[in-house]
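cache lookup: miss for this entity combination. No prior model stored, computing from scratch. Input as submitted by user K.M.:
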Amino acid sequence: MGKQGIRDRVAVVGMGCTRFAEHWDKSVDDLLVEVAYDALDDAGILPTDIEAAWLGTMNSGVAGITLSGPLKTKYIPVTRVENMCATGSEAFRNACYAVASGVFDVVLAIGVEKLKDSGYSGLVSNRPPSDGTSPNITAPASFSFLAPAYFNKYGLDPKQGKKVLSRIAWKNHKNGSLNPKAQFRNEVSLEQIEKSPIIASPLGIMDCSGVADGASAAVIVRSEDAHKYRKYPMYVKALSTVAGPGDGRIKQDFDFTSIRENIVASNAAYKEAGIENPREEIDMAEVHDCFTPTELVIYEDLGFSERGQAWKDVLNGDFDLDGRLPVNPDGGLKSFGHPIGATGLRMLYEMYLQFQGKAGKRQLDNPKIGLTHNLGGNPWQCVSFVSIVGKEIS
Amino acid sequence: MKGIISYGAYIPYNRLQRSRIKEFFGTSGLSGEKSVAGYDEDSVSMSVEAAIDCLQGFNAEQIDSVFFATTTGPYTEKSSIPTISKALDLRAGVKGIEAAQSLRAGSSSLLVALDQEGTTLVLASDHQLSGPGGTNEQLFGDGAVSFIVGTGEDVIAKVVDTTSVQVEIIKQWRNEGDPFVQNWEDRFASSVYTTKIYESVLEFLDNNNLSISDISKVAISAPGTKGYLKIAKSLGVSKEQIQDPLFDQVGQTGSSHSGLMLISALEEAKPGDTILVVNFAEGTDIMLYQVTDSIAKLSKRRGVRDYIEVKNNELSYADYLKWKEIIKMEPPRRPAKERPSAPALYRNYDQNLGFYGSKCQVCNTPQFPKQRVCVECQTKDKMEDYRFFGRTAEIVTFTLDYLAPTPASPALVAVIDFEGGGRIISEVTDCDPAEIKIGMDVELTFRRLYEAGGIHNYFWKVRPKR
């Protein structure tokens, strides 16, 4: 971390988020135009006020022209950003750094993904040519490695373990049922979750996030300018991204009960934000619940639970909307699906709404500090992103 | 002294009960079961497994030549010798040739090896495809054999004499593009070859001043289910002398079948025993061996004996049809598998076929795949080759992936730790999903991962150690 860091130097003054859904009738361009104008309108600025933009997308377009074309921006710099499932967060991070550097004063971070045009369910990625010898393993299967390892280490029998995982999915769906932007807006019973068809043992289909199209965007300005735009801006306290060396799949000291990148990324973020006790100081969090065991180990990696205790905290309701530290109040990837480029900014959108008291039935009681966490890759090697955002300058 | 120094066998794990065919078609057939190559096995992968069995306790550096016999090679044009040589970590300068087209390819390769200088690794491997409901389907099994042929004290079966007789006959044939072999009327062939074999064997014994009663075991591989019995009867071979062709346990394994019978005979043999091998297909190969005292010193191996016992005999007929690609399945609703990149394969053959990783010379950490920068101490380019093959390994965690497109769902994938350090994430094959657990001992097995764009991609998986 540099001497200054990012703490309180930039602020979000406008945001937009489309509904996450199977948008059969909307193109990538439609989603981008819709969400960009929502964010600009929310900030009360014109498209011409934007000085530079960062577009996050994994597979829905290449280069900055994917954004400048539909928006008809006036020959401003636009950079396309990709960092697997943390792509949206990365667009945001880079945009924030550009403002903090003093080079630009008003920028747009925007993320989009159109997953439903491929003809296949699930994610489809373009990989470079290779020797084709990597194991034949799907994303849910790679994250399902966490479950037996965790259960085995902490003495949970598979039935108990499954109950814990189901409880996480149940909580996220319950939160999502209160969110008009979510893909799935129904509560799902614990029994439905536990009995859902097995995808990658022990994970059933209800342990997995959905697949949706969507876009989200943020207008970022210098903190000292923020009040010109709105009464309650969202201040950025920390931004941290870690790309792992992949030692977890080569060395034997990685036991698949945590994700190392999460630990390093969150510790760096806490340091930058001046947070000493995350359990006490963080009021709410949006984390990357791509699969239920991911959320389980994230609780411990991020310090929301003691090692080996997260499963108890889950059963205790600690992370419910009315618990001690609400996690995924908006419903998470579970309810929203995971349009890759949009997800990270969607998480920030929930923080933004909560700080302004605009979260409707999900509204928490005056939260002041929030965390978003996003990861892309596998448990043994990933990029992990953590942001800390706040309602006030500290 | 020239002869066989070592042998090894491979019989695939999966067996099809012939009653399953009967259940499906409502027709009657043979009893017993037959071996079935997994969806991830072919003649090359099975031959490597047989050679691994054969090379137990033998320095692979000493192999001068490799002969690979099969009627079911992966390519019509492209050699498999380099694939096999790399997988077995043979010298780069090893000579090699492939024998194909004939069900005598295996026995003729052995004959030629016995005639030539140096140490030769002879491999025969087959997985012949047969049409559903036919007699060939009843009979054909899959499997591979391997022999090391050479000279010296270590010869376990000294060659006494060999001969080969060419007989032009249309009995069984297959053309490029034909899914299955075609056969002429059985009675034509069987009456002709029975006579031909009879005459050839008599002449062979005569030349050696032997009579059939002097032979300890007679291994006859001939077309059909009863051919070997007919020939044995005409030659006056007693019941005790006849080598079981393993039809009930394995089936007729194409060009590897006579080798399989020879190994079976060697497994039971005592020093001084004589073994006569007779293999017919458009002619006859005849070999006479005498077992030496060295057979007692042969290191422990699986051979036919152990591989017959290690099995899953619950294979369904539906899976059999699917694995053999006899029935066309709905393709997975995923993008088609891309062919592997030839340059990427080329760069990685040592690693992918030889299963070499690297070991840091500074901190001694073994790592797979090969690394430039050490995963432990970050030292750059201070690596030495490190072969993971043959090391004890166990499962750290695993998953049953029902989503991954595979002919044998669910795909079993596990994190594997090696004794002495190093870890891989690998598919687990030949394993019942109910059987897999944390801490389970596994071993590497050579497999054909898939074929895409006509390119066969070979690599290693793990299987439970049994």
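stored under new cache key. The mean pLDDT of chain A is 96.
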